Amino acid sequence: MLDLGCGDGELLADLVAKNNVTACGIDIDEQAIYKCVARGLSVFQQDIDTGLSEYSDQYFDYVILKQSLQQIQKPDFIMREATRVGKKLIVSLPNFAHYTARFKILFRGRAPVTTTLPYEWYNTPNIHFLSIIDFIEFCEMKKFRIEKSLFIRNNRAVKILPNFFAETAIFLLSKHQIKGT
Amino acid sequence: MAESNTSVGVVKTKYFTFAKPPNELPLESGEAFGPITLAYETYGTLNNQRSNAVLVLHALSGDSHAAGYHEGDQHPGWWDAMIGPGKALDTEKYFVICSNVLGGCTGSTGPSSVNPKTKKPYGLDFPLITIKDMVDAQWQMIDHLGIENLLTVIGGSMGGMQVLQNMFSYPDRIQSAIPIATALKHSPQQIAFDEVGRQAILADPNWDDGDYYGHAFPDKGLSVARMVGHITYMSDTSMPEKFGRRVKENQQPFKFSPNFEVEGYLQYRGDNFVKRFDANSYLYITKAIDAFNLLNGTSVQNVFKHLRAKVLVIAFKSDWLYPAYQSHEIVKACKFSHVDATYCEVNSTYGHDAFLLEVEEETHLIKHFLRTVSKDRKL
Fold first, then answer.
1. Are residues B59 and B176 in the same domain?
2. pLDDT tens across B206-242, in order?
3. C-alpha to C-alpha distances, B31 to B20, B46, B117, B137, B280, nearest whole angstrom
4. A40, B48, B68, B110: which has the highest count of C-beta atoms within 10 A?
5. ipTM of the complex model
């Protein structure tokens, strides 16, 4: 398992402890690396945008992009690489079209600061602003197959109008297999 | 003297002699060489399973005295901040070994040692040696200590090259490896600085084709070599912090005596170095470093294909002598071979010297890394 943008390694450590998986992480932040090493994790201090070219095809069972895709320079390139080196890719994203964000723009005329988008405009690490619909459309266009999706608000699944009500979306993706190849 | 309970206290250097004719050590050059003596020190206790041994590998000017104090000495070993009870290499858990390299001048056989055939120092009769020869010699010592597997091999700079050589040549005998501020191969810039140092020694009239033992030593040449070296160990951030443009207090009447503190510092470092280091050893060891190229005859994809050890690679941001990109190459090689590795680039302003100075960060990384390795290996 490979976690791209693993942060302090909380998720990875949990997965390793509970599921006995072999895992490694990548993060650009030096302090995050120290925390991961203290948890006994194997991690690389690296810019995800520099790629995963050293890994062979389908080497990992799962590649994780947890709340990091919107911070990556070239999301389509990284997703292509992630679905090459991993059999499955798990992506989680903050939904920029969540209703609280919409109201902040629409009625208060302010750049949205919400629980899942906690940053001010001047200190946000997010460089792409996308909604659930945007991402689904992007996957279709770039030929990523969405195998499962889950939409969440306050730790509960959202069934109705996820693009409006969900704060976070989680997708299980794989490379689109074109028939006959 | 040993002042606190974090010191290993007073230590003694030990010696191991091997490769006596006709069983000389085969060198990479094709020559066979012996007898060889290695000076080494050990700290802590080897456990019953003989599974807690850590081999520390020193840099160009280091020696076997890595920690603790020699009887009557004021200064501790060169990596005392990292080795001792409760430290990164915790001597209450690990059995730490450090030996002076083959070709060295502090107890191990080198060009200043007496050639048993001629009863005179080898000088230039000493064979050209490589990093691999140093590592091969160390394994004879490890075998002598009855240790089959090392828990880790660790070292910075040239010590890091020996770590990498171990990863390549002895993959089955190491549980983990920690190469710090080092490179898979020496770059033209690194070779260039070493060559300036060597030329300074060769230009000293006292050098006398390496046959200076017993009369005047090429101190000026060796001192200049060390001065060049020291510039490359610092950084453009650390030097202004350390010296600024401050002038020396005791100015000499001579027009070209040092005015600035940085000049005085370099001269002081150079002058001190010649008291403890042999000029011929400097020539031989820098040649070995320059020749180092682990990718000679293999590729970054395959160099660690037999390695199953866990690896921790450490680099330092301001290190321009061994820039972080060289550590990225090591990390790449590990990834290609699916080696379980970790990489950290410590934000330091000290330059290459950081591997001796950034104790807090290194301690954190190494302590936790070794704890994980020990747990994995059920130590």
1. yes
2. 999 999 999 999 999 999 999 999 999 999 999 999 9
3. 14, 35, 16, 14, 19
4. B110
5. 0.93
